[in-house]
Amino acid sequence: MSFLFRTRHHNDSNKTEATPPSAGLFDCKSLPRNLEEIGLKSSRGLLMVFVPPEVEFRQVSNHWQSFSNPALKILSISSSGTLCNQGRSSMYCPADGIHGSWLCLPENLVAQTQIGKLSTAANAERNNIVASLSHLQELASGMDAMEGAITQLKQLQQLTTQTR
């Protein structure tokens, strides 16, 4: 099963211009004192924080969760693939490092997002295989029953030929 994320587009001219997503890096050994330090003064929406595996996840997550409020939900994710794309040859920060990254999806973007569940071709194929195996098991059970019946018929046949 996979999930599909899609943004709905509205043509409402009365709406204000959409706020773009923002992203950045943070040092897990020197966490920001507030969201203003990373440029998120009055953010509303969803803030996703990607924490590298070599640091204390609970401590880092709890720190970021302290910035949560009714208008800003914070999701901490442990990730060995922390994106940093800071002019390096790789888009990823070193997995054994202390740098994490964050992505803030503004409220207006989150409000326009639909999440749906799709059955992928692989899942459909797996379901077909499971159904086929189940059917084969039923056939095998039926064949076992038929073999038992054939054995009984052979025994009856032997009894009738002996009594003649």
Q: What is the topological layout?
A:
Elements (H helix, E strand, L loop, with lengths): L1 E6 L14 E6 L17 E7 L5 H9 L6 E7 L20 E8 H5 L1 E6 L2 H42 L2
Parallel strand pairs: 3-4
Antiparallel strand pairs: 1-6, 2-5, 3-5
How would you portray this structure in words?
It is a single chain. With 164 residues, the protein is α+β, with helices and mostly antiparallel strands. The protein has two domains: 115 residues, no CATH class; 34 residues. Strand 3, helix 1 and strand 4 form a beta-alpha-beta unit. It is elongated and about 105 Å long. The N terminus is likely disordered.
Q: Roughly what fraction of the amino acids lie in strands?
A: 15-25%
Helix content: 25-40%
Oligomer: single chain
Quick one: overall form?
Answer: elongated
User: What is the domain total for the residues?
Assistant: 2
Q: How confident overall, as mean pLDDT?
A: 76
Q: What about the largest sheet?
A: 4 strands, mixed
- Parts with pLDDT < 50 across at least 5 consecutive residues: 1-10
Number of strands: 6
Adjacency order of strands in the biggest sheet: 2-5-3-4
Amino- and carboxy-terminal Cα gap: 66 Å
User: What is the alpha-carbon Rg in Å?
Assistant: 30 Å
Please state the structural category.
Answer: alpha+beta
Q: Tally the helices.
A: 3
**N to C succession of SSEs:** EEEHEEHEH
